[in-house]
Amino acid sequence: MAKDKKPRRPKAVTPKGFRDYFGVDVTERKAMLDTIAEVYHRHGFDPLETSAVETVEALGKFLPDVDRPNAGVFAWQEEDDGDWLALRYDMTAPLARVAAQFRNDLPSPYRRYAMGPVWRNEKPGPGRFRQFYQCDADTVGSASVAADAEICGMLADTLEAVGIPRGDYIVRVNNRKVLNGVLETMGLSDDAARDDVLRTIDKFDKVGADGVRQLLGKGRLDASGAYIDGVGLSDDQAEPVIAFLTSKADTAAQTFENLRAAVGESKVGAEGIAELETIAELLAAQGFGPDRVEIDPSVVRGLGYYTGPVFEAELTFEIKDEKGRPRQFGSVAGGGRYDDLVKRFTGQAVPATGVSIGVDRLLAALRAKGRMGGSEQGPVVVTVMDKTRMADYQAMAAELRAAGIRAEVYLGNPKNFGNQLKYADKRQSPVAVIQGSDEAERGVVQVKDLVLGAKIAQSASLEEWKSQPAQFEVSRADMVARIRAIIEGENDAV
Amino acid sequence: MAKDKKPRRPKAVTPKGFRDYFGVDVTERKAMLDTIAEVYHRHGFDPLETSAVETVEALGKFLPDVDRPNAGVFAWQEEDDGDWLALRYDMTAPLARVAAQFRNDLPSPYRRYAMGPVWRNEKPGPGRFRQFYQCDADTVGSASVAADAEICGMLADTLEAVGIPRGDYIVRVNNRKVLNGVLETMGLSDDAARDDVLRTIDKFDKVGADGVRQLLGKGRLDASGAYIDGVGLSDDQAEPVIAFLTSKADTAAQTFENLRAAVGESKVGAEGIAELETIAELLAAQGFGPDRVEIDPSVVRGLGYYTGPVFEAELTFEIKDEKGRPRQFGSVAGGGRYDDLVKRFTGQAVPATGVSIGVDRLLAALRAKGRMGGSEQGPVVVTVMDKTRMADYQAMAAELRAAGIRAEVYLGNPKNFGNQLKYADKRQSPVAVIQGSDEAERGVVQVKDLVLGAKIAQSASLEEWKSQPAQFEVSRADMVARIRAIIEGENDAV
After folding, report:
1. If contacts are CB pairs under 8 Å, which of residues 372-411 in chain B contact chain A?
2. Which chain A residues have a beta carbon less than 8 Å from that of B411?
3. For this UniProt entry, which residues form the secretion signal (chains A, B) (predicted)?
4. Chains A, B: CB pairs < 8 Å
């Protein structure tokens, strides 16, 4: 250590792509997570909290050819044994590891929920962060589509529980097996050709049916003027895919009819449609109508990844984007069935289905609608008029707290009284308590109603100012009761 | 990618030194964190959640001489700019960074609390984990010992709030300045000699006053038979240190008297004693007597690190160690004043004081005392007698949930009914609901009281078995009410 060298001062910065959360941003997210956990728990899901760190091997990111296996994850090498560890990038990979590791101890089916941060080693950008919250529920070990239906219904219940009213969201359900049926009907047996079609379908949200038709055929000129090569299918060949994507009709019965036409004779396709029909029936029996959960074959997100039913929750109300243009808020949760979850570890296929809620997006949605956010009331601030009487001020704060009122004593330099009131304003305190030696002798305190004070300062005439004093004297014995009345009055007025 | 090579199966293991938490272990910790947050919040502390990741530079772990600056932390290098990032190892370093970065926006003083995991890159061992929870409260920007007193009182309140009764804990307070006074009196002006004495004092908990006396002098034969060299002070020189460490008397007044003798003419020593006296006065005024917070100069933990008052919370009850021998539970929280917090970043000294609660240890203590832990009641399990009537079973579960009762439908293969009841047992379900086609036709369900059933199976005579059936038939319409009665009865019986 070069002790005599003067070290450069470190920079005080949040690392790129990471965020700090203050005050109400912390408590609002916590309240949302609590609500979601309660809904999941009531459905029989048990909490699981794995460590933030996994072996890179267990995460499935181990590529033997590369030097640093950290593409997409934050990884580092252990010093003693050279093992690579990494931060989890989602909640599903740790679940797969746990389901394999503890398969003899866990109940089967195993319903679990998990919530917490995940980390992505991606280039940060506007609105793209490298740490964010996920909130997952999964059922491991059930092949029944009743498990999928349960997840969809629970998702709808959860959205309503956190404050999205019915009508402002829709859970949409599709099924990979139906698409497989379509591909079968098309005669695409070649894996590479199927992958091409899957990749193309993924762009349906962006380019629409005509765009997909072009991309499945000869190709397409995109918005930037670049020509995107097509898959090279004939129009006839491409048609079943388009029929599938656009099969949603006014009634579920008609949608199923359209799907049956799209899959033709395919057995897996028929199986997929039957699954969707069962899901719709199960949900209807529990009171989830198509206003909450609907079968919608245009849901393409995750079709490449999942092996059966696929779901997505969308918020359907409009918000204004950063340029003031109205746009749909869009997706806040997604999931589906993935039956190879545990197989990587044990060789044994274990059916599983689950959903992941993007908590940060959901919070943003509620804030955009004004249903959350804004400021939290600060503590009552007991000011310090006389430094030698600190014990009295502390006793006042303790008394307020004992009565359930958030309170603190000003702990900065008390010399400048104006600074104490400025501090109370910055804290968004509802009330400041003032007691000089004169008041102490007379057994009284001054109570300053800061909310009323600010209101009067903004708008009141001189007469109102006089008739509605924002500061008044109360006996020390009445202090707690009077302050409580002020705070309760303000809360009522909100 | 060698696609044709059969990949080795990954091992499903929690990484060394990390843990997974299931069910009640998650909810109990959450409940404790919630309670602690509530106490902190009521004292005017605001939540802060920084990202898990910091720049190594900001953490203060940057050593320009070493290749991998990750001694003690989990660190990795960014690919684009070569910066080193790391997981936070405590909550104080991120607070220092935030206090510097946002110094113009935060109120001053800034009271904040933070809770979450921290990571240590240490050799894991029994009971030593590489990820654990901390729960901190700090006041930044107040030089007043009233801030220290507030933290000590809040710590006592917090311990009681989480379920440690008065008498089972003690918050002990010492002051680094008093020790500085002692060192001054000893005529130790040499930094190296002071460091030697500080390091020796650190062993007071282990070796006691006589051991410290030997270690300050010629040296000492330790328990393993190794000879530990001493600092080389004369007995006369060492005496003030021993006097300081053993100065605690039956009354605070006598303790202060003893301390005054130990620091002699030292100005900083007198200042330290005055601070302790003020802290004792402030706490007494709020009702914190020496049964909850006491001045105790034998607290040595952190004396090397902190710059003023130092506090430690200890649980005073006995538990049995792994060999069944009784021992004191010991420390569950510690903290103190550290006035150089922000200086590293800005060059400007900012006074700060705070405390960190070891949540995992506190949970262990409550479990050791039987005040927490054990099992949580599972959900009501609606069994599946008839696969084609899944929608009816789902509707039953939905109805139970709507009534606030945790419930789920069995989602495994329903063929073997015994497996369904085994599943319900494993889930610790209070009740199983059974409805075959016969019951469905008659509009009834079978309700099986699993708690009562287990009790009867254990101990009942044949007569009791008959008179107290654990399974009975109820009309479908009465199902929810009857199940609620069973669950409430069980909860009352606990």
Report:
1. 378-379, 381, 390-392, 394-395, 398, 401, 404-409, 411
2. 109, 139, 142, 144, 146-147, 150
3. none
4. 279
Rounded CA gap, A241 and B278, in Å? 79
CATH superfamily of A24-368: Bira Bifunctional Protein; Domain 2 (3.30.930.10)
Whether residues B55 and A391 touch (CB distance < 8 A) is answered with no
Amino acid type, B137: A
For B121, the 3-state DSSP assignment is strand
Per-residue pLDDT at B317: 87
With a cut of 70, say whether residue B68 has pLDDT above it. no
- Contact present, A289 and A183 (Cβ < 8 Å): no
This model of the complex carries an ipTM of 0.91
Which has the minimum average pLDDT: A30-34, A320-324, B257-261, B442-446?
A320-324
Burial pattern A352-370, b for ≥16 Cβ within 10 A else e, equals bbbbbbbbbbbbbbbebbe
Is B20's CB within 8 Å of A117's CB? no
Locate tokens 């941003």: which residue?
A25
| B283, amino acid identity | L
Q: What is the CATH number of domain B24-189+231-368?
A: 3.30.930.10
Cross-chain residue pair B11–A58, CB shorter than 8 Å: yes
Mean pLDDT across chain B? 89
The answer to whether residues B384 and B159 touch, using CB atoms and an 8 Å cutoff, is: no
Of all residues in chain A, the percent with pLDDT exceeding 70 is 93
Q: In what order do the strands lie in the sheet with B53-55?
A: B53-55, B84-87, B75-77
Handedness of CA B422, B423, B426, B431 (dihedral sign): negative
Percentages helix, strand, coil for chain B (3-state, rounded to 5) are: 40, 20, 35
> How does residue B374 score in pLDDT terms, banded at 50, 70 and 90?
low
pLDDT in tens, A362-413: 998 998 888 776 678 899 999 999 999 999 999 999 999 999 999 999 999 9
